[in-house]
Amino acid sequence: MRLRARLALAFALLALVPLAVVVLPTLSRLRDTLSRELDARMQAATASAQESLERSATTARRAVEELVESPAMEDLAREARERPTRAIQAGTAEALMKTRGLTVLALFDRNGTVLSSGHLPARRGDPDPVLFAVTREKSSKPVPVSVDVRTSSGLRQMPALVTARPVDYGDLRLWAVGGVLLDEGLAQHLARLTQAQVTLVSGDTELAQAGTALPPTVSRELPLGSAATVKLVFSRAAAREAEEGVMRAFLLLAGLGGAFAVLLGLLVSRWMTRPVEALTEGARRVAEGALDVQVTAVATGEVGELVRTFNHMTSELKATTERLVASERIAAWQEVARRLAHEIKNPLTPIRMSLETLLAAQEARHPRFPELFKESAGVVLEEVDRLRRIVDEFSRFARMPKPQLAPVDLSELTQSVLALYATPPEGIRILPALQTGVVARVDRDMLTQVLVNLVKNAEEAMTGKGGDLRVRVKGTDADAVIEVEDSGPGIPVEHRARIFEPYFTTKDGGTGLGLAIAARILQEHGGKLEVGGEPGQGARFSLVLPRADGVSTSSPRPVP
User: Fold this and answer.
1) 474 near 439, Cβ under 8 Å?
2) Residues 212/194, Cβ–Cβ less than 8 Å
3) Which long-range contacts (CB under 8 A, 24 or more apart) does 155-159 make?
4) 428-435 vs 467-475, strand pairing mode
């Protein structure tokens, strides 16, 4: 990421972090406050619903007590004692129920037989064990029970709050069991009272529902014994809307603040980074070879000091570089001269000795002069050939041509090189594993020269004791690789850092240019030559080249 982008991002973070630090705790506090407020409202509404149910129960109890103590009930009991079959008719309880504001009323004899039922007239003469069981309750408070009522859809069980009171007249005892139904009217009343959705449930059956509650919701339940449950559902929509409003405001502030901060950051960072970018461009041009670059950007403080230092550095760099180049050129020529002198000096000694032997034999008119001449001429010619090879290697290293690149199948090229070694020295086995389809853009002749040199070196490393010479061609998505591995003595670790340097050699009579030429050829191809293997267990040279585009990787196959 560029410095300008980092500065703009830092400004944006400086604007957003305070907002986050302030708004997020505020939002959390608001959520807690709204939750506490909702809990308090639900608790108050639940208490109000409970009180409403208790008031309904109290009203029903008083209505039954007033009914039992009324003169009408006393007259009814007296007539029932005197004329049992005519005093209490089917509609008696219904009339008494409506005058007292009750919705459930049944008159029983002492055995539990219904004498008259206001909420279910058809029950007259039959037992009603559920309602009559209320007469055995010790508490005078109304209790919740399920009663049968007649509706437009037929007989239905509904919960009710009922209480029982005896009516005694002489030795006659009647029971008045009355109360109020918990029905749609009660649900609507509780919904208006609590501002919640009220559902009256009996078991798994929903008996009545009133009010609405938008999601998300939270519920409270008021159990009414085993007869029914009043479920209060409260909406959290208002709290959620408040939270979302605060969040929207935060996001709006964050967006505006972030946009302003980014804009300000870009302006400030542009002003701050302009000298740095000029220095970067100047450094790039210096790396490309323009050693006299001067940065003209205006800057103050530490950056200004850096600009002045850079300009002074480039002023000195060109002169220093020219001096170094001249010194290196002189040192290179000195090294070449030293190497040439060293390499040429060795063949000159046997040449001189052979010529001196011939001169001495001629002056002494030695009878074996022809034989000595033939032997000395052979030595001289051999040393002259050696001098020619040395000169050729130096010349080839100094005047390496530019590679002529073309797509080449490395498996095919390697196989053609190995064909030159169809009959390796005794004890040496050549084991190729060539992956097909590995193509790279190379100079065929130059790469052949490298491979021949590496295979030859591997054979020389195993001369005498034999071993396996493994040649592999393989490819990855990006690289094409040729490996030449022998089982000879390997290359000591301390020599690996210098093995590709010109004139470095561990062989007797070697010039040290073979691997240097190979490494330079790979470098000219945009690749590299690597050395590996464990000392004492052989050496491995890897030719790594850029793989040509549009080729696929296939599995290696051994070549017989």
Assistant:
1) no
2) no
3) 157/202, 158/182, 158/183, 158/207, 159/200, 159/202, 159/207, 159/224, 159/227, 159/228
4) parallel
Please, which residues bridge with residue 145 across strands?
160
Query: What amino acid occupies position 296?
Result: T
Q: Which residues contact 549 (CB under 8 A, 6 or more apart)?
A: none
The DSSP code for 127 is B
CA distance 443 to 5: 45
For residue 102, the 8-state DSSP code is -
Cα 361 to Cα 375: distance, rounded to the nearest angstrom: 13
Q: Tell whether omega for the bond before 216 is within 30 degrees of 0, i.e. cis.
A: yes
Tell me the mean pLDDT in the region 63-78: 87
Question: Is 482 in contact with 542 (CB distance < 8 Å)?
Answer: yes
DSSP letter (8 states) at residue 529: E
Give the residue, 398 or 266, on which the prediction is more confident: 266
Q: Answer for the pair 140, 61: CB distance below 8 angstroms, yes or no.
A: yes
Specify which residues 529 forms β-bridges with: 543
Tens digits of residue pLDDT in 267-290: 776 666 677 777 777 777 777 767
Element (H, E) at 77: helix 71-82
- What pLDDT does residue 399 have? 57
Phi, psi of 213 (to 5 degrees): -145, 115
- Dump strand ranges (E) for 240-397: none
Average pLDDT, the chain: 81
In angstroms, rounded to a whole number, what is the distance separating the alpha carbons of residues 263 and 460?
Answer: 70
The distance in angstroms from the start CA to the end CA of the chain is 53
Q: Give CA–CA dist 311/318, Å, rounded.
A: 11
DSSP state of 367: T
Helix (H/G/I), strand (E/B), else coil: 202: strand
Q: Give me the half-sphere count of Cα atoms (radius 13 Å) on the Cβ side of residue 82.
A: 6
User: The whole model's pTM is what?
Assistant: 0.45
DSSP state string for 283-309: HHHHHTT-TT--------HHHHHHHHH
- In which residue are the tokens 């850029």 written? 546
User: How far is 3 from 9, CA to CA, in rounded Å?
Assistant: 10
pLDDT tens digits, one per residue of 46-58: 899 899 889 988 9
Length of the chain: 560
